[in-house]
Design brief:
This protein is an alpha/beta fold. The protein folds into 2 domains: 31-127 and 252-319, Bordetella uptake gene, domain 1 (D-Maltodextrin-Binding Protein, domain 2, 3-Layer(aba) Sandwich), CATH 3.40.190.150; 129-227, D-Maltodextrin-Binding Protein, domain 2 (3-Layer(aba) Sandwich), CATH 3.40.190. It has 11 helices and 11 strands. β1 (35-39), α2 and β2 form a beta-alpha-beta unit. Belongs to the UPF0065 (bug) family. It comes from Candidimonas humi. Pfam families: TctC.
């Protein structure tokens, strides 16, 4: 080998070392100015409350202001596009929901790629969803519901909070995995759908525990199971649908993502701080009131989860011919 070869190798190694040192130096000095967490929903909802809780705790831990900026609309596409095009410097994050990965499967025009355009930071929480029925329906378990639906094919309606939403996709996944038939009745929101579920104008619904819990506790609605693969700490006593329908798993989620190319040391800083925040007793208690189960996974695990989630809902949307213009 020639001396020039060794020189090139030494320069390359020095360059890599300098780049690594620069990245770590940037992380050590981070943050030097306010950080923005973009929330894709209007103020006041569970996601907004969670975003402000994280912002408050991160501000204290990082000794820098963390600002929540609401950018609702277009099924969270507006906020997702905004963050995808933001500078990847660690000062802009998206508190993403499941719709980050669902949107490209159901909307005809989406300008971002949920994998290529974002850097996963941490899955903050799963949003507890339940399968529930009008109490007049003569079923008390998922198995009994499946038997009833098979005995009355196509005669039972389920409510969703809109075409292409997780509540519709969960119902369609339930239909395909259990071999039953139900007709969708889409609504513009959970409150309208729950009103008709209570009145008996629809019989079945998948919904967030945060909005359905009061109706279940009052006896106006009967909850049969949670949608997650494992039991939920927030709703003790409710079994997963998977106990009656092997393979069924739906975990609506909330998590932090950054623009693609955000330095790994900065991503790691945010992940580790959020993971520690999720262990605080007051935060855990607040999660229960919001109908959330804390997760706090690392960036690599969150990335794998997003990829799997996209694959699941893409298949459901394709087989159910679910499209939104």
């Amino acid at each position: 080998m020639t001396p020039k070869y060794f020189v090139r190798k030494l320069l390359a190694a020095a360059g890599l070392g300098l780049a690594a040192a620069t990245a770590h130096a940037a992380a050590d000095a981070y943050p030097q100015r306010p950080i923005t967490i973009v929330v894709p929903f209007s103020p006041g909802g569970a996601t907004d409350i969670l975003g402000r809780l994280l912002a408050e705790r991160l501000s204290t831990r990082l000794h820098q202001s963390v600002i929540v900026e609401n950018k609702p609309g277009a099924g969270t596409i507006i906020a997702s596009n905004y963050v995808a095009r933001a500078k990847p410097d660690g000062y802009t994050f998206l508190l993403a929901a499941s719709s980050l990965g669902i949107a490209p499967s159901v909307y005809r025009k989406v300008d971002y790629d949920p994998v290529k355009d974002f850097t996963p930071v941490t899955q903050v929480a799963s949003v507890v969803h339940v399968l529930e029925v009008n109490p007049a329906l003569p079923v008390k378990t998922v198995g009994e519901l499946i038997a009833y639906l098979k005995a009355h094919p196509g005669k039972v309606s389920y409510a969703s909070v809109g075409v292409g939403t997780s509540t519709q996709l969960e119902a369609e996944l339930f239909k395909s995995t259990s071999g039953v038939k139900m007709e969708q009745v889409p609504y513009k929101g959970s409150s309208q759908a729950l009103t008709d579920l209570v009145a008996g104008r629809v019989e079945v619904m998948f919904d967030a525990w945060a909005s359905s819990g009061p109706f279940v506790r009052s006896g106006k609605v009967r909850a049969l199971a949670v949608t997650t693969e494992q039991p939920s700490p927030s709703v003790p006593g409710l079994p997963p649908i998977a106990t009656a329908v092997p393979g069924f798993a739906a975990m609506p989620w909330l998590g932090l993502v950054a623009p693609a190319g955000t330095p790994a040391p900065i991503v790691d800083t945010i992940y580790k701080n959020v993971a520690q925040i999720l262990q605080e007793p007051q935060v855990k208690a607040k999660f229960v009131t919001l109908g959330l189960d804390a997760i706090g996974s690392d960036p690599q695990a969150f990335g794998r989860f997003i990829a799997k989630d996209i694959k699941t809902w893409n298949k459901v949307a394709r087989e159910g011919n679910i499209r939104v213009d």
